[in-house]
Amino acid sequence: MPAPNTVISDDQVTQYEEKGFVVVDNIFSDDEVGQMRAVLSEMIEGARGLTDHTDLIDLESGHTPDNPRVRRVKEPFKKHALFAEMARHPRLIAALTELLGPDLRMHGSKINLKSASYGSAVEWHQDWAFYPHTNDDVLAVGVMLDDMTENNGPLLCIPGSHRGPTFDHHQDGRFVGAMDPDVCDIDLAHAEMITGKAGACSFHHVRAVHGSSQNTSGADRRLLLYQVAAADAWDIRGMGPEANWQEYTDTMIAGQATNQPRLVPTPIRLPYPGPLKTGSIYESQSVLHNKFFATESSAAE
Ligand SMILES: O=C(O)CCC(=O)C(=O)O
């Protein structure tokens, strides 16, 4: 494994700690990005003919069986050996070790396709509202499978929000996986764009407020998201990996598993009562009365 400081600098670690997010270039080579794109293409071939979401594929609202449109591939880490291998890539592990320590567990994974012209927005939220843990040494890695630019619906993140409250992600008494932009007490105008070249990775803290607009540009924005936790951060929902020791150990990507969670006081709101619509963040957010990001209906057709 390369020395950590050859992958992520001290300044980048400080930026992550202070802002709650950072981008590190060149974690993956062009060849590795090409391999991931090729496997992704194979995975979404099955969308033709589908009339509903599956446990692998989440469909855009404009999808038809003859004109397939995929919004998300679910749990690529578990569903294809390449994505399990890339999660253990020495350069990625070196960066993660600096940010979370040496013992690392894959909590979940997904690929948001955000295709050119119509790829869906993701409303403002904190991942912490979905899966609070016993401590907040938890983050999401965004592996850029395309260049993520200011035009193709990049991640937007509010600096410093990882040190603030956990906002209400409920509407009419049910979890909807999004904050009401008019009610939450945070200045969304302070959002910073997270951009980078294919092969770069973003790292955003589990409590950081983030979202992204619809992709109305002509360029795809495929983003592989690995949700990584320090091994001693345990999902407190009771449905998490702690209920299954084998799954917990199988999802370790570096270091040692532990049955001794580290408890750190943090602001927590549980995602209960659960969402009316389940399956993905897009589904749970689809019922929102007050959306921040515009949806161009022509683009979604
Ligand atoms: O793909 C994006 O732009 C946002 C991803 C995200 O925040 C999520 O899927 O939870």
What do you see in this structure?
With 301 residues, this protein is of the alpha+beta class. It has a single domain, classed as Sandwich (Jelly Rolls), CATH 2.60.120. It has eight helices and 14 strands. Strands 1, 2, 3, 4, 6, 11, 13 and 14 form an eight-stranded antiparallel sheet that branches. A four-stranded antiparallel sheet has the order 5-12-7-10. Strands 8-9 form a two-stranded antiparallel sheet. It is globular. The structure holds 2-oxoglutaric acid (AKG).
Q: Quick one: CATH class?
A: Mainly Beta
What is the number of E strands?
14
Oligomer: single chain
Class inferred from helices and paired strands: alpha+beta
Shape: globular
- Superfamily (CATH H level) name: q2cbj1_9rhob like domain
Give the distinct bound molecules: 2-oxoglutaric acid
Average pLDDT number: 93
Order of helices and strands: HEHEEHHHEEEEEEEEEEHEHH
What's the main sheet like?
Answer: 8 strands, antiparallel
Give start-end ranges of low-pLDDT stretches.
none
What is the fold named in CATH at topology level? Jelly Rolls
User: Percent helix among the residues?
Assistant: 10-25%
At CATH level 2, the architecture is: Sandwich
What's the number of helices? 8
C-alpha-based Rg, rounded: 18 Å
Strand content: 15-25%
Q: In the residues, how many domains can be counted?
A: 1
Compute the separation of the termini in Å.
47 Å
